[in-house]
Inverse folding.
């Protein structure tokens, strides 16, 4: 590939478009991770609640969305939410098709997938809290909200960080599937560039390099955060 | 939503299952072979080999499979040098490209599983085997492999299931797998949920069967870890 001008920032260069695509990828993955945190938190709570029905529902959610192809979930969420919205609008008298914005559908799809895995991470993190700390909190008279804020959440987040770092990487890579809905994230920009310049090899390779840079840098950030969060803890076999 | 439509859709989807399973099986087997090579380089103790294996794992695990697949299928096919070379008869076919790129990707994950399993073999076992005079292949076959394989089984089953899910991506390179048939039915009939739900059910059952199979295998191979009947 001698001609690198296509990745430049001048006229006819795709540098800016690719960087914007990369920014969109980061944004939609981050939103997906947050949606997944909400879903995962709820599912973990349901499974830990001790109630049979809630536990079964939580378990079924995790099993189902970990057993389905990610691409199928992306299509299902994208087509499904649009159909749902159109039909609901028809009930209140609105005519015609309403499409859900690709960004919202994409973030939701990534979140639905990520949530199924995050639930397990949060559950394990909660179970890693020493029982005595919870008993101590109760014995000094903390109510549930205060105990959650002071004792449970800080430790759950600390224990969950390594798992969340992995899931962030997964979300970042899953977000490439959203390109099928037309959202102009990095994968989609690479496709458009490949199509309009007839240089697919250069564009997909360039896209892959940007993905790699993003995963390496963000993984590093998670490593630093983990080191910070556990700086007060003893390490086994230092 | 009539039963006739459901059964017709189901039959159409099932007719695409062999292709999905073929892509899965071939890429997993080819991937295991590549992974064995990568693991061997990784633990070889030779610095350049080790660096290569590390870079391989980083690149294939750090980028989305979709873009890897597109590099192989659309990217390589666009290069005149590839078209003129001896690999072109292999790479001109979407099926081969799909298997190759899925295999390259799973190899990176499998290599990490193999490496973890090798590290979990207690050094004492290897020393004992050496003390009995075993070395090389015999040492690997009798001492290292049986222990490492048992450690590798649980993560390996997870990776097998991930690969079934990953095969859905081949619908984007013109292959008629379960995913693309589901989209075709949706396109033709404008029924939103049903084709995708049926396809999802097929994938789920396949994954469940694979998971159950590995669990049974694990149980069979670790009778010594089971608690004794009271």
């Amino acid at each position: 590939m001698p001609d690198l001008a296509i990745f430049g920032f001048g006229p006819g260069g795709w540098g800016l478009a690719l960087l914007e695509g990369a920014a969109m990828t980061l944004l939609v993955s981050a939103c997906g991770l947050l949606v997944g945190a909400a879903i995962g938190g709820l599912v973990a709570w349901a499974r830990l609640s001790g109630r049979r029905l809630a536990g079964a529902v939580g378990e079924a959610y995790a099993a189902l969305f970990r057993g389905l192809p990610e691409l199928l979930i992306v299509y299902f969420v994208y087509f499904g939410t649009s159909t749902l919205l159109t039909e609901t609008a028809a009930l209140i008298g609105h005519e015609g098709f309403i499409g859900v914005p690709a960004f919202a559908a994409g973030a939701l799809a990534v979140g639905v997938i990520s949530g199924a895995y995050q639930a397990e991470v949060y559950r394990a993190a909660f179970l890693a809290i020493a029982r005595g700390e919870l008993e101590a909190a109760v014995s000094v008279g903390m109510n549930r909200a205060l105990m959650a804020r002071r004792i449970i959440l800080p430790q759950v987040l600390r224990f969950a960080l390594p798992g969340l770092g992995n899931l962030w990487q997964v979300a970042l890579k899953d977000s490439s599937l959203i390109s099928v809905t037309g959202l102009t994230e990095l994968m989609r920009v690479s496709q458009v560039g490949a199509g309009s310049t007839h240089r697919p090899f250069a564009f997909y390779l360039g896209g892959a390099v940007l993905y790699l840079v993003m995963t390496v840098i963000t993984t590093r950030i998670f490593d630093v955060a983990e080191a910070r969060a556990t700086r007060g803890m003893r390490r086994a076999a230092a | 939503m009539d039963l006739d439509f459901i059964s017709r859709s189901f039959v159409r989807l099932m007719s695409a299952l062999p292709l999905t399973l073929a892509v899965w099986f071939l890429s997993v087997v080819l991937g295991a072979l590549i992974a064995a090579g990568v693991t061997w380089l990784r633990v070889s103790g030779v610095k350049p080999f080790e660096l290569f294996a590390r870079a391989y794992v980083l690149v294939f695990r750090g980028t989305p499979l979709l873009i890897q697949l597109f590099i192989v299928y659309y990217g390589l096919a666009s290069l005149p040098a590839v078209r003129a070379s001896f690999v072109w008869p292999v790479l001109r076919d979407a099926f081969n490209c799909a298997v190759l790129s899925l295999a390259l990707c799973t190899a990176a994950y499998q290599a990490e599983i193999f490496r973890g399993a090798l590290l979990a073999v207690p050094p004492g076992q290897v020393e004992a085997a050496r003390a009995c005079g075993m070395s090389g292949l015999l040492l690997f076959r009798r001492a290292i492999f049986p222990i490492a394989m048992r450690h590798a089984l649980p993560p390996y089953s997870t990776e097998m299931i991930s690969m079934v899910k990953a095969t859905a991506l081949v619908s984007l390179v013109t292959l008629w797998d379960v995913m693309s048939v589901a989209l075709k039915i949706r396109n033709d009939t404008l029924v939103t949920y049903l084709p995708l739900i049926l396809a999802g059910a097929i994938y789920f059952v396949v994954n469940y069967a694979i998971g159950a199979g590995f669990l049974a295998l694990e149980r069979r191979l670790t009778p010594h870890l089971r608690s004794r009947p009271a």
